[in-house]
Design a protein that fits this description.
It contains six helices and no strands. The chain has 126 residues and is mainly alpha-helical. The longest helix has 27 residues.
Length: 126
């Protein structure tokens, strides 16, 4: 990480971290509302399961906290960005698999772009 892009990298990490925390809060506090209204057509992947939504919400909480910590502490930035990178990357690959093999309709390429593929690309890119 160079001095010229360090600020941009830091803010991208913070932005993804904040988004993760907001998503986690919604998932943990209002799981049924999240399932029905998150702009990702989640019902296409299966019936509502409050426990599963809350489990995933706890993962987003941990990831968000790690990224916010990475945003704040340059010494830990690389280490604290690695696990979120793995989470978001594998999460995106699962969506690629499901859409690519027709387990969900092709419109998921576009639907999953802003909240699944973009955060993964940003974190892997930084």
């Amino acid at each position: 990480m160079t001095r010229t892009n360090g600020g941009a990298v830091r803010w991208l990490i913070g932005l993804v971290g904040l988004g993760s925390l907001l998503n986690a809060g919604w998932m943990l506090l209002f799981p049924q509302q999240w399932y029905a209204y998150v702009p990702a057509d989640v019902p296409d992947y299966g019936p509502y399961n409050a426990h599963l939504v809350k489990d995933l919400g706890s993962a987003f909480l941990a990831i968000g906290l790690m990224l916010v910590w990475a945003w704040r502490d340059a010494r830990l930035r690389l280490v604290f960005t690695l696990m979120p990178c793995i989470f978001y990357g594998v999460h995106a690959l699962i969506h690629v698999h499901d859409t690519g093999f027709g387990l969900v309709e092709a419109h998921h390429w576009a639907v999953d772009l802003p909240l699944t593929y973009l955060p993964a690309a940003l974190l892997v890119g930084v």
